[in-house]
Amino acid sequence: MKQHQPPAWAQRFVEWYCKPGLVEDLTGDLHECFERNVATIGPRRAKLVYIIDAFKFFRSYTVRKSLFAHLFMNRTMIGSYVKTSGRNILRNKLFSFINILGLAISMSVGLLLIAFLLDLRTYDRFHENGGRIQRVTSIFSSNNEQGGKFATASIKTARLIREKVAGIEAVTTIKNDFSGDAKVGGNELPIKGYWAEPSLFRVFTFPMLQGDPATALKAPYSIVLTESAATKLFGDQTALGKAIEVDSMVYQVTGVMKDVPFFSHLRFEALVSLSTAEQMQNSDPGFGAWTNIWPYSVYLLPSKNADMAAIRTQLDALAKEENLADKNTRIQLELLPLFDIVVGESLRQSEGGPGFTGPHLSPTVLWILGALALIVILSACFNYTNLSIARAMRRVKEIGLRKAIGAGKNEVRLQFLAEAVMISMAALLLSFLLFLALRPLLINMAPEMQRMVKLDLSPAMVLAFIVFSVIVGVVAGFLPAVFFSKVSAINAFGNVSPVKTFRHLTLRRALVVIQYTVTLIFITTTAIGYVQYKNILAFDLGFNTTNILNINMLDNKPDAMLQALGEMPEVTGVSRSLITTGVGNAWGGNMKYRDSRDSQLVLTNHVDENYLPLHDYKLVAGGNFVARPASAEAVSEVIVNQQVVKRFHIAGNDPQKAIGEQITLNGRKMTIVGVMQDFHYGKVDNLIGPVAFTPWTPEDRTILSAKIHGADMPAAVAKIEAAWRQTDRIHPFTAEFYDEEIEQAYSEFSTMIKIIGFLSFLAISIASMGLFGMVVFTTETRLREIGIRKVMGAGAGNLIFLLSRGFLSLLSISAFIALPATYLFFNLFVLPNFPYHTPVQFTELFSGLLVVLFIAFVMIGSQTLKAARSNPVAVLKRE
Amino acid sequence: MKGTNLGEFEELVLLTVAALLKEAYSVAICDELASHTGRSVKLGVVHAVLNRLEEKGLVTSELGEATKARGGKRKRYYELTMPGKAALINARAMRDQLWAKIPSLAWKNG
After folding, report:
1. Which residues form the MacB-like periplasmic core domain (chain A) (predicted)?
2. Is A128 exposed, middle or buried, given 0-12, 13-18 or 19+ CB atoms closer than 10 A?
3. Is B73 on the interface with A (CB under 8 A)?
């Protein structure tokens, strides 16, 4: 039989800490138990028990006093490290300054990222059962076409889960689109919220201040207000039991709840009983249909210890059964944990649209941001490593002395780590100030950001900052620590061996090359992105957008406004339309030509007869609308684009002959009266597809487009706003210039460019500081050589070439790596997503290189010039 | 207040030391305690208590013979001191007094 031995290291551990008098007794006990355990529970678990017990014996009475003294000694050693590090930092002011500033700048990015991540992590954590709550999501496909994944699910899904699925404590459905103007007495204010069921309060934790959460959302026409909505509407009066009129419906206030916390993916001012919506839409068969998943969110609270796999199988079975009813559509149900809603898979309808329920960020974006921040931070760490090793020559004697008087490798290593951590701690103070300064900039960069994060300080955040700075210090100091710990006392006092320093020279060179490669990639990416962005904004959409102010009429009839605009001399033309195109909005319908089985989705807009001339749409054939239909029923004319003619082969693809042809749009027969030249209906990253314009009817919501002529645009807008006040006192004036709307449509893009641009600015500054430090160092160490060369007759130009040659060759290596890499990256991965991009130009690629080279050259040049001008007599006399 | 009072577990350990006579060493005490009380007794806790009892002067200890089963390590045997015995007797007397004070009536109503 094999003799099992207890783990030797654990035994040694006990022998190390234990009082000598107790060692034999304790280890003996452990051994006895071990042998017994081997027999009863097997050798592996016996070893584990041995280890656990070895640690358990670590108590105040077993530990020898000298060990405590030793640990205490180490603490005083740390004190001495701090002292010597402090002296070193002060002695080398320039290097410390470069390091602290560089680290501080890069760490501020890290701090922002940490704060950002911590904020995202706090989302929805206030729900008591948050860890259990699941959202039901749907994968929707129709006609065997793979549909999208939606964050929503139908009301019927919720009902079926309630009836059939076991292991569920509560189910709640939210309809996401309650909004209107709430009227209380003479007070009228817009209000937004959800239609919800009483079970909402069982699934989620939203504390009720007045009213009964169990019944408040039961009866139709009940409304629960948040505290601030209640104050907004009722002032100091109690809201409970009062009536509110919203869009000519009267609701009873049945509850007042605490305001929804900021970090909640559900955000609302009011909850209206879902039974109200049921009553209102009684006649609509689609309301409770299995396939109507669009405006509803369904949440589950599984019972404690529920078997999630079993719930999933039940959901699958349920969906399978329901899908039998409709051949064309198929819905698959999935579960999404509550905590993965804000940062998690991008689902459709989870942002914007009627299904909108709060902020969302895809984890890919976080990974990219994290990677970029890491690169910038590492770059600053490289500076530290580089400069510390460069100074090696001057410190080798110091270390040799330390070693000669008895310091071990460990002590030297700790000394250097302590120094790096001290530097990073000093940098933390500075970067915290930067963090405070940058925070408002980051939050205000995009409206989405304001809605998503606060970046307020919390104890956890401060702790994370400190831990982060220690980690940065250790990373920065790791290589110098290893390097210096290897210095031997004997070498140190002899002449420094050139072999050794040469090896680290290559390391330093590699670090410089990496740093500059990264910087160049950053810079060229920014340049390319910016040029592409500008091209998109200046892109010829196929129609004119300059000086056109789009006024959203909300629910108002446009007539009064139309008249007011007509009387203003600044306004040269006005038109009405259903939506604004070119900014990502879309409206669509099914079009058929002669073959009734061949239908195609076409994008549509409803426009009046002034719309085409106002926006300079070019007609290839035919003319503008003639009739002015009063209702959707009466619409008989359609203007299509060339794509439609091509798609349906109307009249042999001849636009001229297509005029007068009949098509069917959404089941209504219409005559083509005009063919427009193709234009960009969607954003520039979409291909041009078939588009049809039909006449605007008074039933449609309206965007009024006013063409403004005149020198003083703001005055004109103010005048229009005053006119709006006359017609609508409740709603704020929402109007925007077409060009600005387009700019906003690409705000994600510009935000990304801003972030990368900022990071590339940081990368340049950090790399420049590092290079500066290196140049100062090199010129200082080569001052004697320069002196001798000068005496021998070398000119300033010669010397500058001599000194900068090394750096310039490093920079060119970086350029050789960075430029092709960026070029390929854009051509292979980024630009293919934009069908209408412009190719990457050499100017964009090389402008970045030129900037970096220029900065580097100024630094190298100024320092080398200073060295070259130095008086050789003064330098050489020092010997 | 060292030495003035016995904790519940201390008392148990002390009793076990007394009961095991010449065989009272940590592992044996541990086993004995476990079998009598039915709870799982951790070796580390017993050690700590024995150490405390020794500090209080209620037990003395002595290293015994080396045995093979313990990897060649000797056992530490514990023995009650006079104060230890006194402490046990005291504890028992105190309990007996309290027991005597409970009127038999009290049990019937329970």
Report:
1. 96-317, 546-722
2. exposed
3. yes
Tell me: the pLDDT tens digits for A481-517? Answer: 888 887 776 666 665 544 455 456 777 888 889 888 9
Query: Residue A573 and residue A575: Cα distance in Å, rounded?
Result: 7
**CB distance A295 to A175 below 8 Å:** yes
Q: The tokens of B68 are what?
A: 């093979």
- Inter-chain touch A59–B48, beta carbons under 8 Å: yes
- Whether residue B110 lies inside any domain: the answer is no
Are B73 and A24 a contacting pair at CB < 8 A? yes
Residue A763: is it exposed, middle or buried by C-beta count within 10 angstroms (0-12/13-18/19+)? buried
- DSSP helix/strand/coil, A249: strand
For residue B86, tell me if it sits in a domain: yes
Instruction: Confirm if A24 and B26 have CB atoms less than 8 A apart.
Output: no
For the record, the structure tokens of A755 come out as: 């972030």
> Could you tell me the CATH number of the domain that includes residue B42?
1.10.10.10
Whole-structure pTM value? 0.73
Residue B18 lies in a domain: yes
Using a 10 angstrom Cβ sphere, with 0-12 exposed, 13-18 middle and 19 or more buried, the burial of residue A220 is middle
For residue B12, being part of any structural domain is answered with yes
If you write DSSP's letter for every residue of B77-108 in order, what string do you get?
A: EEEE-HHHHHHHHHHHHHHHHHHHHS-THHHH
Distance from C-alpha of A114 to C-alpha of A369, rounded to nearest angstrom: 11
| Chain segment A618-656, per-residue pLDDT in tens | 999 888 998 888 888 888 999 999 999 988 888 888 889
Of B44, B51, B71, Cβ closest to residue A28: B71
- Total domains, chain B: 1
Interface pTM (ipTM) of the complex?
0.84
DSSP state of A835: T
Task: Give the A window 6-65 contacts with B, CB below 8 Å.
Answer: 6, 24-29, 31-33, 35, 53, 56-57, 59, 61-62
The answer to whether the Cβ–Cβ distance between B73 and A31 falls below 8 Å is yes
Quick check: A26 and B48 CB within 8 A? no
Q: How far is B89 from chain A (nearest CA, A)?
A: 28
